[in-house]
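INFO batch 0412 | record 1 of 1 | parsing
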Amino acid sequence: MVKELTRFERARIVGARALQISEGAPPLIKTEKIRPLDIAKEEMNKDVIPIGVKRRTKGY
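INFO prediction complete | emitting tokens
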């Protein structure tokens, strides 16, 4: 996975993961939090979300 994510990439990944959790996907960590967005943020901080980023190279 890309080490340095922009704030837009982070927002997109957390949003996508929160949607998965809200639709019934199991959380990847043990947590006391209930809201899908809070769970997704905690997963992002612990670097356990299996979503990567593909970037275009210059010259496209």
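INFO post-check: Residues 29 and 39 are 8 Å apart (CA to CA).
INFO record closed
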